[in-house]
Amino acid sequence: MAKRIDVSGLTAYYGSHKAIEDISMTVEPRSVTAFIGPSGCGKSTFLRTLNRMHEVTSGGRVEGKVLLDDEDLYGAGVDPVSVRREVGMVFQRPNPFPTMSIFDNVAAGLRLNGSYKKGELSDVVEKSLKGANLWNEVKDRLNKPGSGLSGGQQQRLCIARAIAVEPKVLLMDEPCSALDPISTLAIEDLIGELKERFTIVIVTHNMQQAARVSDRTAFFNLAAVGQPGKLIEIDDTERIFSNPSVQATEDYISGRFG
Amino acid sequence: MDISTKNTEAPPPAPQPAVAQHKRAARGSTRPGDRIFLGLSRGSGIFLLVIMAAIAVFLTYRASLAISKDEANFLTAFEWNATAVPPRFGIAVLAFGTVVSSIIAMVLAVPIAVAIALFLTHYAPRRLSGPIAYVIDLLAAVPSIVYGLWGALILVPHMNGLFGWLNNYFGWTGILSWEGGAPRSMLTVGILLAIMILPIVTNVSREVFRQVPQMHEEAALALGATRWEVVRMAVLPFGRSGVISASMLGLGRALGETMAVATVLSPTFDIQASLLNPGGGTFAQNIASKFGEATEQGRDALIASGLVLFVITLLVNGAARAIIARRKEYSGANA
User: Fold this and answer.
1) Contacting residues of A for B225, CB less than 8 Å apart
2) What's residue B185's pLDDT?
3) What is the CATH number assigned to the segment(s) B91-334?
4) Interval B292-319 mean pLDDT
5) What is the mean pLDDT of residues A158-162?
């Protein structure tokens, strides 16, 4: 189910501006990889190249290779729509469809794929909501709009929506930055459970969070404003936070950046 | 210096109470700027209400004069002899014509307008969408008498082919049969009205679709939605109430359109079962056609018909608000 991501020589542009340059890394299946780094260093941009969401932005353009197991996501003839069905995404701000009920939100991806049997839908919705630790809180109001939930619940609803289609990889772009500490804890616990089934990549500004949830951590940095962001190093999280091999990483982690 | 220190000492802003405090401050303020602005804005509000009330009183008074003298049934009679003694007139034909021509216009214009708005906001390349939007704005600026002339001189002579075709294939339905008269009928009027309301419906819909938050569209994209599926899942549901409002603006124009209808329609005081046969009339067209030659008594009768149009417009707007309110819980507003 979960797949390995293998990136080599990836460069992404916004129009003529080079946002990230020459990034190569491997993400193991059933692991959590955290991206840390200062604002503007391109970690979110890089995350969005992994499910071809980068090119949705006007002027967005990518060079290089992203292999999902053996399939190149940027190969000729690869449909970005089918890539995104394999690589799910959770965004910074919870974004359940405001016009849909809780049930319909979770079912939305399945209905798109059209590959479900009648009666199977409610099972998948229940399973996904349970998988997102949200079932007990919403099982009595599945037909109410998703926008009526709290921020933390909405974010878990979005996670349920993403995992309902059984993606191979789950990308999370600062999923807790709009949430209070208790909701954040709930999401972090959930990430720990989800990594049994999915390959997870998470962008975070919170270094404690990276240390808590991830197996591997990648540090991104940029030389100066306007310069492209680069991958400084990627290593086991424990090592990054105790004994990083690059001085810049240690400076950033210990708060001596700039 | 003095002022800046005062500002920093101001109490920390708390959103709701702050507004209330401001209001109170403005009312009790002794500063001339506040008092003048308060007076102006309150005065404008009251002025508007007074004008509305004056119009309503005028319409109701003159209409009641006419209706009390009417020898025929005002709501159901198929005739308009308001200047005769005793006067006999009814609004049934006008109400029917107004509603039918506007419905035709809505049915034709709204889907096309929504499609254009979607194309401009979600499909067209930016350097194409700008000029197209500009041309649509131009369409809105054309005076309605020009539409009327175009309709009478160009559209009407070209309708024969369409009418013949409709009669051949759909004549059996009754509502699309044609006896071969000049195509100055409800359908032609409806088509002309559709063209006239297209710009306003398109423009408002386009604004609404443009305001769909990026994050909703990205949510759909990230699930593996195609472009059309993004439109269906995120854009259309979000824009729904806005499109309804846009349609109501268009409907308001269609209901009240005067010169274009008066130029194209050949009015009669009966109801044609077929939309293709000439005849019928609308409130606004009837007023425009008859007002010039009407006596005092005839004018009162026309004003009475205007009052009915006013009421119909109010009902339509109320219905639209009800539709929007019913779906409020699911609207994008509380996202």
Assistant:
1) 81, 84, 112
2) 92
3) 1.10.3720.10
4) 90
5) 93
Q: What is the structure's pLDDT at B174?
A: 85
Q: B20: pLDDT confidence band, cut at 50, 70 and 90?
A: low
**Measured CA angle at B289 (ends B288, B290), to 5 deg:** 95
Q: How distant is the Cα of B317 from the closest Cα of chain A, in angstroms?
A: 23
Mean pLDDT lowest among A188-197, B224-233, B323-332? B323-332
CA distance A89 to chain B (A): 6
Nearest-neighbour CA in chain B from A25: distance (Å):
22
**For chain A, how many structural domains are there in total?**
1
Residue boundaries of the structural domains of chain B: 14-69, 91-334
Of A87, A49, A79, A46, nearest to B227 (Cα)?
Answer: A79
**Cα dihedral across residues A53, A55, A57, A62: positive or negative:** positive
Q: Would you mind telling me the total number of residues written for chain B in this entry?
A: 335
Containing structural domain, residue A243: 5-96+168-253
Mean pLDDT of A49-56: 92
Burial per residue of B123-142, b for 16 or more beta-carbon CB atoms within 10 angstroms, e otherwise: ebeeeebeeebeebeeeeee
Candidate from B126, B222, B240 with C-beta closest to A51: B222
Closest residue to A98, CB basis, from B224, B225, B330: B330
ipTM of model: 0.89
- What is the DSSP-derived secondary structure letter of residue A168? S
Residues in B closer than 8 angstroms to A96, CB to CB, are 219
Distance CA B27, CA B36 (A): 11
pLDDT at B333 over 80: no
Find the CATH number of the domain harbouring A190: 3.40.50.300
In a domain, A189, yes or no: yes
**Percent of chain A at pLDDT exceeding 70:** 98
